[in-house]
Amino acid sequence: MKSNYKSYDVAKSSDRIKEITNSSNTNYEEVDEIPSRDSLTFTNGFYVKKTGALFVDIRKSSELSGAHKRPRLAKIYRSYISEVVALLNSNTDCKEINIVGDAVSGIFNAQYKHQIYSMVSTAAQINSLMKIINYHFRKNGIVEIKAGIGVAFGRALMIKAGYSGSGINEVVWMGEVVNRASKLCNEANKDTTSPVLINEDVYNNLEDKEDREFFNYNYLLDCYQGNIINIVMDEWYEENCK
């Protein structure tokens, strides 16, 4: 969100807080799928009953500044972020994409099992993408990177938050599904975990037994993990990146 300077008034700030906290007509409607952003106001919200969340983050990103100076750091982040966003944006069920630092997340409609499968397929594409990114990094003397991917399914609260009247606002997603996907992402692709971690609800909603066989249970994290890939992208890599 771009800022647009307005002087701060503590009394008006207190009035805004009072208006929000004293409001008695806030409406939080339960819905099956993600509604349009345009239907959000500063006094309503939506509980989306069946939501998917996918988070991606670079492992040990703080160490990259020690390996490269800023121009190459910019190349790392631009390459990684642009293509992760491209994959998320290519999934018709992905309705929200957010970027915070090197963390990229997507919020998905997940009413049906085929939508949950599609979200996991996007996670596999992102995992395969990392091989292609690292191929180009190697060719240009840039340090290779690893990414962790966390996927969860559950219920989420969608609200509009920001500075009312300023034009500065954003859609905010809250709830266990978002927290869980973020935490799984933080644990994924570390020394003892696979690149993709999914919660139990995602695992149980994979329609085919064959799909579930790509994952094994992680007792310490109470989730399922797998090194899933996209076959088409991996075949392209083998043909073009050797």
UniProtKB/TrEMBL annotation:
Record SUPFAM superfamilies: Nucleotide cyclase
Gene3D superfamilies (alphabetical): Nucleotide cyclase
Gene Ontology terms: biological process: cyclic nucleotide biosynthetic process; intracellular signal transduction
Residue ranges of domain Guanylate cyclase in the record: 52-185
Molecular function GO terms recorded: adenylate cyclase activity
UniProt xrefs under CDD domains: CHD (cd07302)
Protein name in UniProt: Adenylate/guanylate cyclase domain-containing protein
Protein source organism: Halobacillus trueperi
Taxon lineage: Bacteria, Bacillati, Bacillota, Bacilli, Bacillales
